[in-house]
Write a structure and sequence with these properties.
Layout lengths: L7 H20 L4 E4 L6 H6 L3 E4 L8 H4 L9 H14 L14 E5 L3 H7 L8 E4 L10 H20 L5 H24 L9 H10 L5 H17 L9 E6 L8 H8 L3 E6 L17 H9 L11 H13 L4 E7 L3 H16 L4 E6 L6 H15 L1
Parallel strand pairs: 1-2, 1-3, 3-4, 5-6, 5-7, 7-8
Helix pairs in contact: 1-9, 6-11, 7-9, 10-14, 12-13
The protein binds Double cubane cluster.
């Protein structure tokens, strides 16, 4: 049975307050940056005196808008995000209200679908693309990414008219690290057996991280951790599932919802709406630009090659969270995560951990069929 947690209400109630805050900031001349990937360091945006929201889309409503100019057979996350931006820029009302408040998009060179879509974005919105090395462990990668971050810093300074001081950058690094530590505190609670909170609730909170201000988000996570540590009993014992793969932005909670309706419990998410967003901290003792370059290159996205750090992270999570089975989640047409499944499966096989692979979009048509497969998987684990 799901547990009713008072502190979850905070995350609902804060959204209109955040919208009002963004509107106020814009009226006062503050720049609002929209990003679409975790490789773009928030610290640089905040240190330049701008605000940021992450625009990754999980809603179906904006997809038809995107399909007016994008092929249908690409990842729904790309279509949903692009459709939201196009619709908002054209005065539509399909996207969430925060999308129309963006002054510029800072995109990134990750997968092909995103890169090519970003070439279409400037028709609707000012767009800056941060380049990324593709082989993060090569000796040249750090130096190249560092130079890209400095270039991005210059762009932000020109856009906002504010210099980025070392002191400001260090302050933002400390603040973001505080958020990361808090999320470690929240996730550590999920190691309990049974965990005190359902994975679908945690996912909904992680999705809020994308558009709340950092201090608002920290307030909510602190309240939740306090409540979980002191009062909340856990749901009944259930097979412990790790969901690994593509991100699930707001609007998309399909897979954890199915897993938990069928009697499993999601104890961790290896994704950008899970551990990839907070696992590694930025080294506060190093030069801030170098420390940022090092930390952000540690994000184990399947766009990178080889991506051994992701395999190691999954193995670490399986052990730490006493995972009994992994649901490997790929968004339809995401080749990077789809192909990388083979290596993940191999690593899990060596540890005797079963894997269920699910490829899906944002529609409802496959819910019943996925439910049958998840049910059989959970029965096998029981
Ligand atoms: S760091 S996962 S947020 S790129 S699911 S759009 S990869 S086709 S979202 Fe991502 Fe940054 Fe990586 Fe994270 Fe392409 Fe795949 Fe779609 Fe993806």
């Amino acid at each position: 049975m799901p547990v009713s947690l008072q502190s979850l209400k905070y995350f609902e109630e804060i959204y209109p307050i955040r919208i009002a805050q963004l509107q106020q900031e814009r009226a006062e001349g503050k720049k609002i940056i929209g990003t679409l990937c975790l490789y773009v360091p928030d610290e640089i945006i905040f240190a330049a005196g701008a605000d940021r929201i992450i625009l990754c889309g999980g809603k179906t409503e904006t997809i038809p808008r995107a399909e007016e100019s994008l092929p249908r057979n690409i990842c729904p996350l790309v279509k949903s995000s692009f459709g939201a931006l196009v619709d908002a820029c054209c005065g539509g009302d399909l996207a969430c209200p925060h999308v129309s408040l963006v002054d510029a998009v800072v995109a990134e060179a990750t997968c092909d679908a995103k890169k090519k879509t970003y070439e279409l974005l400037p028709r609707y919105q000012e767009t800056y693309v941060l380049d990324l090395p593709q082989k993060p462990e090569s000796p040249q990668a750090r130096a190249y990414f560092l130079s890209e971050l400095r270039k991005f810093g210059k762009y932000m300074q020109e856009l906002t008219g504010n210099p980025i001081s070392t002191t400001a950058l260090e302050k933002e690094i400390r603040a973001e690290n505080e958020t990361r530590r808090l999320l470690h505190r929240l996730f550590a609670l999920r190691k309990r057996d049974p965990p005190p909170i359902q994975g679908s609730d945690v996912l909904r909170i992680m999705q809020r991280q994308f558009f709340l201000a950092p201090d608002q988000f920290r307030e909510g996570v602190t309240r939740l951790c306090d409540e979980l540590e002191h009062t909340a009993p856990g749901p009944q014992k259930a097979p412990r599932i790790l969901v690994a793969g593509c991100p699930m932005p707001a609007g998309n909670t399909k897979i954890p919802d199915i897993i938990e309706q069928k009697g499993g419990v999601v104890v961790a998410e290896e994704s950008c709406t899970g551990t990839r967003s907070f696992w590694d901290l930025v080294d506060e003792k190093k030069d801030p630009w170098v420390a940022l370059a090092e930390r952000y290159l540690k994000i184990p996205c399947a766009c990178m090659t080889p991506n051994d750090q992701r395999i190691a992270r999954i193995a670490e999570l399986v052990e730490a969270y006493r995972v009994e089975g992994v649901v490997y989640y790929t968004l339809q047409f995401c080749h990077a995560y789809n192909i990388e499944r083979t290596r993940v499966q191999q690593a899990l096989k060596e540890r005797n951990i079963p894997l269920l692979s699910i490829e899906s979009d944002y529609g409802e048509a496959d819910v019943a069929q996925i439910g049958v497969r998840v049910e059989a998987f959970l029965e096998m684990l029981a």
